[in-house]
Amino acid sequence: MAEAVGSGESGVGGESAQRQGVFFGLAAYLCWGVFPVYFKSVHVVTPLEMVSHRICWSLAFLMILVLGKGAWRDMLQLFARPKSLAVLCLSTLLIAANWLVFIYAINAGEVLQSSLGYFINPLVSVLLGFVFLKERLVRVQWVSILLAALGVVYLAVSFGVMPWISLLLAATFGLYGLIRKSLKVDPLVGLTVETLLLAPIAFSYLLWMQRHGSAAFLSGSSRLDFLISLSGIVTAVPLLLFIGATKRLRLATVGFLQYITPTLHFLLAVLIYGETFTHAHLVSFGFIWCGLALYSFNAYKSVREKTV
């Protein structure tokens, strides 16, 4: 896998790797953008049960890929690297928390909050890149981050409560991307180990639910069972694409591509699911959109200057 280094987008494979990274990123964020449609279709499943199914079915799907690719030796070798395994334990907790909060948001009719969270996420990625990877930020990027912060604060003051769903989604996924970028592990092998670490807990919980007759899976609906069984593919494919993108691109570039997901969430929330979009939402989103617009213009300008 090509690895992005320093503050530039150089890495093994050069421009070819960057093009691959952009393609992987676009595909991942388009998939995530329509996630609410899938999770609305399985809304009768509780968030914790759905997360457990995502883990177990993802592991089954990933193990097939690992065996087909002949990467099982690499996976075994990873277990002999305590430091890498410890880092993967942390990334595992972060992605599981992100899944749980996201599914809760969908089930609670808070798609708009998930949209806000993933609009904030690109700027969180930019900030994390500055703090941990020493990626240089110019004044416009700092202004973008400040505008996003003002948007969150305005929404919190207007409703008298912090938009914790949005902040948790942005923080957990931003940190997950940072960790997976810095870890030199094949995306497929790393993701398989992550799900393997969670699988015993997830499977035990599902088994407990089945024994107590409270599980949605195998409760009599073949359609629901089929949709739940798809959760492995639905979960693993965009994550593999995302990790492949982070390995080839700067976090700032990955952050730019992330606009796709919250835009689709926003459109679904307002136009399809009929969630209320208040004046406070308009002002808050306005701050964030202005920040993103400034950042996008600066990124575009930088690219044009490099190509001239």
UniProtKB/TrEMBL annotation:
Lineage: Bacteria, Pseudomonadati, Thermodesulfobacteriota, Desulfuromonadia, Geobacterales
GO cellular component terms given for this protein: plasma membrane
Membrane disposition: Multi-pass membrane protein
Subcellular location: Cell membrane
Domain EamA, chain residue ranges per copy: 21-155, 167-296
Keyword Acetylation (UniProt): no
Similarity remark: Belongs to the EamA transporter family.
NCBIfam families: rarD
Gene name in the database record: rarD
Protein name: Chloramphenicol resistance permease RarD
Cytoplasm found in the keyword field: no
Transmembrane segments: 21-39, 51-72, 84-106, 112-133, 140-157, 163-179, 188-206, 226-244, 256-274, 280-300
Domain of life: Bacteria
